[in-house]
Design a protein that fits this description.
about 15% helix; globular
Length: about 140
């Protein structure tokens, strides 16, 4: 009986120590490095709002620098022209597609949901670029 308990204990320890794998890699240091810095919303209705990303979170800021919203970065998967980053905001799930030119990410395109192709549920106003939108003055 004692040998059986020791055996079951050893099996339980092995099962618990086996790392769980997912079909997509977690946010790597390479992706975090590409996302480092400010990302500006591509919409005049969000003028001045920007985001910053870490290995776990995306933080959205108001133009005055105060935190407006925080989301969780779930995973990043390498694609032909960049990465697909899965983001979770409470019950809402969406994807950010990176577009790499000359080794640098130029745009983050927003698409609602975690399924479908690039362009499905796309929203330009929820996408980001490295440069803020220009300020227009009307005369």
């Amino acid at each position: 009986m004692k040998k059986m308990l020791m055996f079951l204990f050893a099996v339980a320890v092995m099962v618990v120590s086996i790392p769980f794998t997912t079909s997509e890699a977690a946010i790597s240091k390479k992706v975090v490095k590409m996302l480092k810095g400010n990302w500006y919303r591509n919409s005049s209705s969000y003028h001045g709002q920007y985001a910053k990303f870490s290995s776990k979170y995306g933080r959205y800021y108001k133009p005055n620098g105060k935190l407006a919203h925080k989301v969780k970065l779930v995973s990043a998967k390498k694609k032909k022209n960049g990465y697909v980053i899965r983001v979770k905001d409470g019950k809402l799930k969406y994807r950010l597609f990176t577009h790499i030119k000359k080794g640098k990410v130029k745009y983050l395109e927003y698409s609602a949901g975690w399924t479908g192709k690039l362009g499905d549920n796309y929203s330009g106003s929820a996408s980001f670029s490295r440069e803020p939108l220009p300020t227009f003055t009307y005369q």
